[in-house]
Amino acid sequence: MLRVIVRRLLQLVVTLIALSALIFVWLRNLPGGPVEALLGERATPERRALLIKALGYDQPILVQYGKFMQRVLTGDLGNSIRTGDPVTDVIARAFPATIELAIAAMIIAVGLGVPLGYLAARYRGRLLDNLTIAGTLLGISIPIFFLGYLLKDVLTQDIHWFPPSGRISTGMDNTSVTGFYVLDGLLTREFDASADALWHLILPAVTLATIPLAVIVRITRASVLDVLNEDYVRTAEAKGLRHRTIRGRHILRNALLPVVTTIGLQTGALLSGAVLTEKVYNWGGLGTLITDSISGGRDYPVLQAIILLAALVFVLVNLLVDLSYAFIDPRVRVR
Amino acid sequence: MSLLDVRDLSVVFQRRGERPFTAVDQVSFTVEPGQTVGLVGESGCGKSVTSLAVMGLLPKRGNRVTGEVLFEGTDLLKLRPDDLRDRRGRDIGMIFQDPLSSLNPVIPIGVQVAEVLERHRGMDRRKALREARELLDAVGIPDPDRRLTEFPHQISGGMRQRALIAIALACKPRLLIADEPTTALDVTIQAQILTLLKQLVDETGTALIMITHDLGVVAGLCDTVNVLYGGKVVERAARHELFARPRHPYTHGLLNSVPRLDSVRGERLHAIRGSVADNIPWVEGCAFAPRCDNVVDACLDGPPPLEPTASGGDLRCNNPVSEEVAVP
């Protein structure tokens, strides 16, 4: 087991190094850049040359990359070109916001998706099943930004059920401990702050959850249909076990194996979906940071760091999924 | 009163847009306490569907079950689903064909045995596991303590079937239904499992319905045999009677097609010609008529009735094999 983990972590390092090189070259070949953004269009060539030299962009790209990696290894990701703040600080502020949003979305997607998928399979071909299938099709195909603005318009402008944007009401005097506002409120016993943050969290989380929810419903449904036909479910029925026991111990336990894999793969969808969702609800997480860093003059250091972090999160979550698999399914357990 | 009295049991499968198919056609048979009864026939003759109908394990949709299944006088077909659930596993146990797929792959063997004890005998997990250990020991699984925590893929095929037998007999049911319990096993293991079943049935006094296509299994185990063809009982007889004097041409053909060690070298094996696909519907005549060597005109004039024979059995045939030309 330990050997598997170590091997996977080594693979992760190689992946990240390759990815960092790719991003580095790719970003620097995008049209526009920090120099144009900082100096504007009418800057004199002399001033431009001076800034390019000051930022080190006149050196060969390999040298630039080498210096970047050297600093990364010492834990220094550089400073934001836009604001001048250290990249680590900028990201540390935005990261918990996005993770809080992603976790909330995943709770909705799994908490709603698994029961719905189970019921659709159980009542296959009936009204509930057909409605669910139609719903998942809509959920997969509706663009996130469209759904986001729609929900926002109806539920925050027409009827004021939810706050339109932000993570917490202005004037809410909350203490930040972890950066996860809902959790912070519970830790510091500022329950009003917790509730307020949760209230802000619901709409963005629902928006972000639609695609993973639709995927999880479909996978669960297909998987439960498979398991329902298994001989061991018939054995369980022949034992006269209660419906509850058969559902939990014999059907869902087996049917959820593919769903767990899906959860890992959906992390990618969550991270990319977060960019759009955060824009719509002005969330102030990594998604907002990434859009601001691109439109605000290609903030190379920040962009590099965010993309690498996203890759790191994705690979780690999938590593966790693979490891959990070994615990759930005895057949894949490694000696 | 018989332990189990199946009367005119019919199962019709009907899927939307398809013609209804009668898998079991007015089958009647009885099982006395402690008796071993065989249901014999080839694939598709309705023997498994019969057992699933008795257990109430057929899919909820797409079929119609009629007739009566009287277990100690109670019609199981009329019980509410929850009441039937209370009886399954407690009064009637069942073991299936494929022991690997019949066990849950992600749950330890011990729990799979224990849960039926928890359900029907109100034991807590600790007590049920202790009892499960005894049961595994009783069905001849070596090192039962270790097996409790092992998973189905970690033990052999024979042991899996033994575990399933332990599950089925855990609550000391009065009836055990075994649906081709040896088909998926090696020949040497088959013999062990049959010996075990025979021994357990003798010890506990449990009645047994043995569903099989293997006449060898019947010969070693059953008191009475019901031969099914095309969803109907075509012959019923005591074991010795059936093997000594098979009357129905189908039974005769089955016995004749068993290879014998004492046959003359080079002699061709007898086979029943045609296949189940040649069957005609029972309403038009005897379903076996197209494959039968003894066919007469009356066979195509509607279904022959099931009539008692002189030797105490029942026979559904217009022109049975005469007792003289029976298997040597």
UniProtKB/TrEMBL annotation, chain A:
Belongs to the binding-protein-dependent transport system permease family. Keywords: Cell membrane, Membrane, Transmembrane, Transmembrane helix, Transport. CDD domains: TM_PBP2 (cd06261). It comes from the Bacteria. Residues 95-321 form the ABC transmembrane type-1 domain. This is Peptide ABC transporter permease. The chain crosses the membrane at residues 9-27, 101-119, 131-151, 197-217, 251-276, 302-328. InterPro entries: BPD_transp_1_N, MetI-like, MetI-like_sf. The keyword Transport applies.
TrEMBL record, chain B:
The keyword Membrane applies. It comes from the Bacteria. InterPro entries: AAA+_ATPase, ABC_Ni/Peptide_Import, ABC_transporter-like_ATP-bd, ABC_transporter-like_CS, Oligopep_ABC_C, P-loop_NTPase. SMART domains: AAA. Keywords: ATP-binding, Cell membrane, Membrane, Nucleotide-binding, Transport. One of its GO terms (cellular component) is plasma membrane. The keyword Metal-binding does not apply. Residues 6-255 form the ABC transporter domain. PROSITE patterns: ABC_TRANSPORTER_1, ABC_TRANSPORTER_2. One of its GO terms (molecular function) is ATP hydrolysis activity. This is Dipeptide/oligopeptide/nickel ABC transporter ATP-binding protein.
